[in-house]
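Protein Record: Sequence and Backbone Structure Tokens
======================================================
Tokens: labelled as protein backbone structure tokens, with as many entries as the chain has residues.
Question of interest: how does this chain fold, as expressed in backbone structure tokens?

___
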Amino acid sequence: MYLAAGLFGLSAVVLLRRPRTAVRDPLTLSTCVAIVLGSLVFVCSAPLTLATVNDLTGIPNFGAPLTYGMLCAYSCSLLILVIHWRGGPRERVRRMVLRSIAAYVPLVAAIVVLFALGDAHTERLTDLDTYYANTPYLREMILLYLVGHSAATLTMCALCVKWSQEVTGLLRAGLRLILAGSLLDVVGFQLTKYTAVVARWSGHDLDVLSTKVAPPLASLGALLCSAGYVLPRLLPLLVAHARSLRDYRRLGPLWSRVRFGSNAPRPPSSLWQSPRARLHWREVSIHDALLGLAPYFDDGVRERALTAARRAGRGAHEARIAAEAAMLADAARRAAAREEPLQAPSGYRLHATEVSGTGGLVELALALAHAPAETAAPESTVRTPHG
């Protein structure tokens, strides 16, 4: 129970990675509230928590209405989440949210009143639903919380089915995960609870469904739902970070050749920088170094390398990049040796400086990695004339 609560709540932390922006978005805020309330349900329903609450209050089974009330609040938050998902005019959304709250607040109050009227003096930490299934008032309390939770969950399932047919990509995948988790809750938790309670009404004992089957399936359903909540928002960010880290590393051969010529200021601390920020700094630094190496660019070296690449059967673009890599390697070698710049420097522009993004630099770095190795100057020991 505690593990499920922790993992479920972790998805809310992921969605709230930018709190100021998140609290202004009703959909994000309602999603996080639903997740937090779902996590609290698992915490409250754990036997250790129930025993602690009962001991602190001095009331046997006081943890039961607390858990049921929390579950009803979670169910209400699911309906509010559905309302924000559907969207529409602000006044209509606000009106439907208030109606949902107005429906579940009396439900929570009824649960508390029914518990107070019922006779629940024997503490039950794991099987209260079935143990008191035939007890007046407590029977109605148990049925009320199950019906309230079922109404919200089935509404969520219906929305996921309808919406998943209208969207594609990660949003559809997230909706299907939420649908799978909700259906698992319906079948694995609610249906087993109903079955165990009804069995008690008819004089049979199927308590194992309520005590052994329902809790783990409810936990699994919650984890599937949390994955559905965060997948559409987290995965694109992870993919972007992975691509940035990949390009950062692929620029390594180019950076090792030209880093001595870069005057770009280092960031205050690179330890906590995101991969995207690290890539941006390396890209800016490389462009700064290329600018300093421009007076050393030799068109003769480039043209000879271009001819050799074409004779080797390379395409026009690939041959151009290979030739630029050879010219850059030659310029870096002579700049590192503190040779004088060319009397008539080339006005040639590298492909990497003509295109936006990191792709051009990555192509140049890959070509440079296959160019003849040159001895690179140690960092900060040699500077190009502009530095």
